[in-house]
């Protein structure tokens, strides 16, 4: 009996000791998983040689049991992308992990995910005969060259994670492969996950190869391209994405200056416009950004006048600014007036300012007058003469205005500008001198240069309608001119839908002055009959009763 009790005590002792050893051999590791510097939800966490699995919630936290000496790594998986954290060198009970290699709050860039990284170049690794690197790099590179991205990616990821400074091609190729995955993704959640990975590749490239200004521009360009292509994106998400892109674009342009890429400059202006329309940016900031971008494109074109990318960028930036709603007269005056002395020393800058003021109908401002005089003094070109004509119109100096309009027309060869100059001279002659015949001749010349100008056709109709009483010798002959006026209003709305409302209003106004049926009967006329107007008009129209 005593022997049995002794054996029982011994067995109990052995069992307790075994349990104690087993308990001691296991360790609970906790931590937080981050993406883009924020706690990441939906990350699956597994330990090597452990059956446990944990998925992070909204706060990014995880808890997993490992066996020291046996568990070699912890694996973190998001959708179809997995990353391993080697436990060698990470023996603590709390291990935070950055899934994309971005900065962990309070721990600096890279965080725990950078443990075990080898920062040697490919030449150094080959010289050291690092077989792991050479094997993985060769496999990824061969598959990549064959455009077999599915086979290339597993090997690329191993090189990318452990040897991030081995070759900058890692980042070029990574971007290409993940852009392909984004474009092929069938659902938005997967697409968003790939976009996040793409952004992290750019961040990691900055960390190991610098070129921050250049890379941030490329990063933001792709972010806008892919993030905002989602047709179902909410306004709140769109606003947040635009703000994120703006931050990177702004920093990129500040760092790159005149070396900024054309696409980055254009997207920066487009994002600026979008944020203004969403109420997230002031009018003054939009104008200031436009000024910054204009200066950069001007510098680029000054270096190379044939730089097509810079020229296209300049045109697109101008277009975005002009359609932003921020470029009103008040904003332009507030922007340009303090800079006038600087601008006045540069002919091209003066022209640019005057064109901007002209587009926003800011030609009656004192700034426009000063700039026009200065430009004509420095460069008496067709454009400068045209601006001087406008200046004298404002001052009601008819003879000088007319002289400068004619000077501008004589010096100009561009058809679009000639149409504009002739149109304004016609309008001036009509409004100030009431010379219907001369005004009609000028508007006809405007139409010769731009046959589809709705506003010129409207003006021609107005000239005939207002000059009706100067034609013929009786009331009937006066009324026949309204047929011709309405002809031009109808033509205006056919060629230019933008003037349709104005044309319809004028048609309704002057149609009531058509002769009635009784008058037409006594004149021996019928509806639809051709009718010749002589005198200073000398055109043919169609008979119509009111």
UniProtKB/TrEMBL annotation:
InterPro entries: CarboxyPept-like_regulatory, TPR-like_helical_dom_sf, TPR_rpt
Keyword Signal: yes
Record key words, sorted: Signal, TPR repeat
Keyword Signal belongs to the record: yes
Signal peptide: 1-25
SMART domains in alphabetical order: TPR
TPR repeat start and end residues: 382-415
Classification via Gene3D superfamilies: Tetratricopeptide repeat domain
Descriptive protein name: Uncharacterized protein
């Amino acid at each position: 009996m005593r022997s049995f009790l002794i054996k029982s005590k011994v067995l109990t002792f052995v069992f307790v000791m075994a349990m104690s050893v087993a308990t001691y051999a296991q360790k609970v590791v906790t931590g937080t998983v981050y993406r883009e510097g924020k706690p990441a939800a939906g990350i699956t966490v597994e330990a090597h040689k452990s059956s446990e699995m944990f998925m992070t919630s909204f706060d990014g936290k995880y808890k997993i049991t490992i066996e020291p000496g046996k568990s070699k790594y912890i694996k973190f998986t998001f959708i179809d992308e997995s990353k391993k954290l080697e436990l060698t060198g990470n023996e603590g009970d709390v291990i935070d992990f950055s899934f994309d290699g971005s900065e962990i709050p309070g721990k600096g860039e890279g965080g725990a995910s950078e443990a075990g990284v080898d920062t040697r170049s490919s030449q150094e690794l080959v010289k050291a005969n690092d077989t792991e690197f050479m094997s993985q790099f060769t496999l990824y590179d061969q598959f990549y060259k064959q455009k077999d991205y599915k086979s290339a990616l597993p090997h690329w990821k191993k090189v990318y994670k452990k040897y991030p400074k081995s070759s900058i091609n890692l980042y070029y190729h990574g971007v290409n492969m993940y852009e392909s995955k984004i474009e092929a993704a069938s659902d938005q959640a997967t697409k968003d996950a790939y976009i996040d990975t793409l952004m992290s590749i750019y961040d990691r490239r900055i960390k190991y190869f610098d070129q921050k200004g250049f890379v941030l521009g490329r990063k933001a360009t792709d972010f806008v391209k892919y993030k905002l292509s989602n047709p179902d994106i909410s306004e709140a998400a769109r606003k947040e994405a635009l703000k994120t892109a703006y931050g990177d674009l702004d920093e990129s342009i500040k760092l790159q200056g005149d070396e900024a890429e054309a696409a980055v400059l254009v997207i920066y202006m487009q994002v600026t416009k979008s944020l203004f329309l969403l109420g997230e940016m002031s009018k003054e900031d939009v104008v200031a950004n436009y000024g910054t971008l204009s200066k950069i494109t001007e510098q680029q074109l000054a270096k190379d006048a044939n730089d097509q990318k810079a020229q296209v960028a300049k045109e697109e930036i101008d277009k975005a600014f002009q359609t932003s709603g921020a470029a009103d007269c008040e904003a332009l005056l507030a922007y340009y007036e303090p800079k006038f002395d600087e601008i006045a020393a540069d002919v091209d800058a003066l022209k640019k300012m005057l064109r901007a003021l002209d587009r926003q109908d800011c030609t009656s401002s004192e700034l426009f007058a000063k700039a026009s005089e200065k430009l004509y003094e420095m460069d008496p070109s067709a454009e400068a003469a045209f601006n001087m004509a406008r200046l004298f119109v404002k001052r009601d100096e008819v003879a000088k205005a007319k002289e400068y309009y004619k000077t501008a027309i004589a010096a100009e060869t561009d058809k679009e500008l000639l149409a504009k100059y002739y149109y304004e001279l016609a309008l001036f002659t009509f409004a100030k001198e009431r010379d219907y015949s001369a005004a009609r001749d000028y508007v006809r010349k405007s139409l010769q240069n731009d046959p589809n100008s709705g506003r010129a056709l409207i003006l021609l109709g107005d000239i005939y309608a207002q000059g009706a009483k100067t034609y013929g010798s009786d009331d009937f002959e006066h009324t026949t001119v309204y047929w011709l006026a309405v002809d031009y209003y109808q033509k205006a709305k056919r060629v230019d839908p933008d003037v349709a409302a104005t044309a319809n209003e004028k048609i309704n106004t002057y149609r009531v002055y058509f002769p009635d049926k009784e008058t037409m009967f006594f004149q021996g006329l019928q509806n639809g009959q051709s009718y010749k107007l002589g005198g200073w008009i000398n055109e043919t129209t169609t008979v119509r009763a009111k």
